[in-house]
Structure formats: structure tokens, C-alpha cells
Amino acid sequence: MKKRYIYYPLFLGLFLGLGVFLGNLLSVNGLDNGFTSNSSVKKRKLNRLIDIIDQRYVDEVNTDSIVDVAVNGILQNLDPHSVYISTDQAQAASDDLRGNFVGIGIRYFVNQDTIAVLSTVKKGPSENAGIKSGDKILYLDGKPLFGEDKLSTEALKGQKGSKITLGILKPGDEAVVYVPVVRGDVAIESVDAAYMLTDQLGYIKVNRFTETTSQEFKKAVHKLEAQGATQLAVDLQDNPGGVLNAAIDMADEFLREDQLILFQKDRNNQRKDSYATENGDFEDKKVFILINENSASASEVVAGALQDNDKGTIIGRRSFGKGLVQQEMQLGDGSAVRLTVARYYTPTGRSIQRPYNKGNEDYFNEYLKRYENGELTDKNNIEVNDSLRYKTPGGKVLYGGGGIIPDVFVSGPLGYEAQILDYFARTGFADRVANDYLQKEGKFLRNMKQKEFMDSYQVPESLLLTFYQNARRYNNSLRLTGNRDFMTLLIKSSLAEQLYGTELKVKLLNTRNKVIDRLVELSTQSR
């Protein structure tokens, strides 16, 4: 049971939250015109039942919650990726896919009843006001954000252009300073890092696909080309997907004009094709795509489009296997559904969607079966369906029915302890310990130049032991012996992100990454 716990929570949160395709919005009224009289009778039956419960049930019942349960129940019987978005979830869900929101621009957690700033969004309202990682936010317009009568953290949100005053306690200080902040548009960056791995190999880490990803990605490509990149690696590991058009635009960077990127089929078997344009900047250069078992949806569109067109090299482990297209539809009260309206296929005609006919529980457990049958550590354990065999124009054999199988396999973490530490690395487990330390040593570390931090900063033994004690609370079988170096790296990478930004964290973690090691090796061989 412990082994299952490592993967399941992250997977469920990622793929119910972000692993969707967003199309054009449909109106409820537009759909009503297609209902038959029989379906109208069934709708009235459901409405009648809710009215009866509301009027006659022995106890007081919140009928709104009944409706939510009913909607969720209906969608769960369709497929694993058709989801209901309640009114209070709608704004956050929309922000995730749009790639921006209105706020003060901080990443934080509540530590012992106090808001602790982990990092500020680059060029966001808080950074502009001088707020930094390690700061504590105690007051908002004179009202406490801690204690029994505290304001909700939701109070940090508000209308664009509205001004608030935050009471900040900075590391090492005893007096609160009051900082004016103007709420504004805050970007949710989908490109975590863009830097040169070698003198010829550029590297871009993409964490999701939003409406701003295309612009971010193209900017990153141009930056690396200016630095001499003749090869490019796009890291889509743990990327759960998002906006379909962003995936099409990314694939277009590498494919020639009129090459097929994907096609979709709806319930009437009507086909919609998406082709590459002449706008790609990396069509004649070597490209590598990195994927793993948490790469889904839009990530698989990119990997599948390149693989089927014999472009580049796919490195890593078999991707998740989501080939369904969702469309968001408003329900009239601020809530919405993301309903599966089509299937997509790679250029050779592959559907990479895993079967879900046995129900959602079996669908999600299939993901765990990969771990249990050894697929994550040995490519020979990957199960393929020979009846779903396809060939690319160049003669490469591919398989449909369950994700993208990479061209070059790289095993996941070997051993239970290594898997736990990998989970820690992917979920930011060290962030709180690092932030607590920043609040104590913030003045010292904030004055340290980035190069000095990278070259010479050593994580104190006391901080390492604090992290280890926290890790043991999560799993008491974890040992310090043999894991000291990686635990130290996790702490330093978390400090780096909070002090200097996410790219530095990615750089540090990539120094101990087998996929990156294999990537550099292949890049060198292909010159």
C-alpha cells in the first residue's frame, strides 16, 4: 500500500485538474435545441425528484449540494475526463488554462497560522512592491491574517487596480513594515526553464499548456537560438496537458508545412485535421522530447505528432495515455462541465487513449499496475497490443491503445527510497523546511549572489537533519545513509527557487537526473 501512495495523489490531482483540452465554449441554449422530447421527460424526472426532496424530506437538505452530486455522478459514468467545475472552482480552473489571474502575485503556504511567502511572481505586484521569499504577511489593511479572528486568504484577491496595504514581517526583523500593493494581472508561467545544457543543446522545461504557452515557448526558442542552440530538448515530464492549440503550435515549431499534427473525430465520425504551417523555427534541426508516465493530453499530442512524422527522438517512459478532447460548457449559474466531445488521433491514425470501459477505478488502477509490473524500470515490461500496430513513413513501428512509447527508454527511480525522494522532488516537499530556514537566515542568503550560491553554498547539517526528520514523518523507512547527497540537493534546489526563481531549481535537479544524462549522451552522439 505504501508504494501506491507515492504516485496516486499526485496523478489524481494533476489529471483531474489540468489534463484537459479546452475548445470553444458552447452555450447551454445552443445545446437545448438538440434535445428530444424523450430526453425532456427524463430531465423533468430529475427536477421532480429534487423538488420532492426539497419539499418533503424529513431533514433540511441543501439541494444545491444534491445537484452537484447528481452532476458528478452522471459525468463519472461517461469517462474519466469529463468533469464538473463548481461555481467556487470555476475562476481558478479558468485561470489555469488562461495562464494569468488577478491578484498580488505570490506563492505561499500557511505555516503555523501565518502566511509565509515562498516566492513572488516575476514582475508581479508583490515583487514590484519589494516583497520577497521568507517574508510573512501578517495584516491586510490593518486586519490580521493570523489568529482566531483572521481574514481568509481569499481576501488577498480582488479587482484589478485595487490598492491594499500589507503588513510584512521580514526575516530577522521585529517590527512590521507596511507595504502598499496594487492588485494586477499575474502570469502563470508555463515555461519553467530555458537554458543551454551544452554548447549546442538548448533545453526548455514546460509545466503545462495554457493560452500563453505558445508565446512563452517561441520566446524561449529564440533565446536559445541566439545562444547558439542547434539542437533542442523539450521537457514534458510531469506535464499533464491543457490547451490543445498550444500543443499544436508547439509541434508546428518542428514540423514542415502541411505535415499532419493530429486529427479529431466526433460522435458523428466527422474528422477535423490540424496541419503544420510554414512558421516553424526549428524544422531543420535536431529535437528531443522528454516524457514520462505523468505526461498526458497536450504533451502526448506533441510527442505523437513528432514521432509519427519521424521527427526527433522521444526519450523517457510511456506516457499516460489520454486521447480524449474536452470542451467547456457553462451551466448558467457560474458552474461548468468539461465534456468529452471527440477523440484525437496521431498522424498515423493511432488513438493513444487507454481503455476505460471497466470504470474509473480500474482506469486509475491501470496506472498503478505499470508500477507494480515493473514497466517503470524495464522497457520489456511494457504491454502492447499487436492489433494496434502502426508504421511511420520512415518505417518505425508504433503502437496505439495506451500512451506514447518512447524511442529511447530511461528507467524511473530504482528502489523504494529513490521513489520517495523522486516524489519529494516533483512535489516541492522541501519548500516548507527551506522557507522556515529563510525566515531565520534570510538577510544572509538574500545578499548572496546567484553564482556564489551555486558554486559554494553548502546546506548546513542542521537544516539537512530538520528535512530528514520531516521526511521520516512522511515515511519512517527512509534512511539518511545513502540518500544524504540527494536530500541536500532537494533542499538547495528549493532555496534556489525561493531566492532566484524556478529555472535555478530545475538546473540543480537536472544535475542528478538520468533522463537528462541520457539526453546529453544522445545529443553528443548525433552531432
TrEMBL record:
<dbReference type="InterPro" id="IPR055210">
    <property type="entry name" value="CtpA/B_N"/>
</dbReference>
<dbReference type="GO" id="GO:0004175">
    <property type="term" value="F:endopeptidase activity"/>
</dbReference>
<dbReference type="Pfam" id="PF22694">
    <property type="entry name" value="CtpB_N-like"/>
</dbReference>
<dbReference type="InterPro" id="IPR004447">
    <property type="entry name" value="Peptidase_S41A"/>
</dbReference>
<dbReference type="InterPro" id="IPR036034">
    <property type="entry name" value="PDZ_sf"/>
</dbReference>
<keyword id="KW-0720">Serine protease</keyword>
<feature type="domain" description="Tail specific protease">
    <location>
        <begin position="161"/>
        <end position="355"/>
    </location>
</feature>
<dbReference type="InterPro" id="IPR005151">
    <property type="entry name" value="Tail-specific_protease"/>
</dbReference>
<keyword id="KW-0378">Hydrolase</keyword>
<dbReference type="Pfam" id="PF03572">
    <property type="entry name" value="Peptidase_S41"/>
</dbReference>
<feature type="domain" description="PDZ">
    <location>
        <begin position="100"/>
        <end position="172"/>
    </location>
</feature>
<dbReference type="InterPro" id="IPR029045">
    <property type="entry name" value="ClpP/crotonase-like_dom_sf"/>
</dbReference>
<dbReference type="Pfam" id="PF13180">
    <property type="entry name" value="PDZ_2"/>
</dbReference>
<keyword id="KW-0645">Protease</keyword>
<dbReference type="GO" id="GO:0008236">
    <property type="term" value="F:serine-type peptidase activity"/>
</dbReference>
<protein>
    <submittedName>
        <fullName>Carboxy-terminal processing protease</fullName>
    </submittedName>
</protein>
<comment type="similarity">
    <text>Belongs to the peptidase S41A family.</text>
</comment>
<dbReference type="InterPro" id="IPR001478">
    <property type="entry name" value="PDZ"/>
</dbReference>
<dbReference type="GO" id="GO:0006508">
    <property type="term" value="P:proteolysis"/>
</dbReference>
<dbReference type="GO" id="GO:0030288">
    <property type="term" value="C:outer membrane-bounded periplasmic space"/>
</dbReference>
<dbReference type="GO" id="GO:0007165">
    <property type="term" value="P:signal transduction"/>
</dbReference>
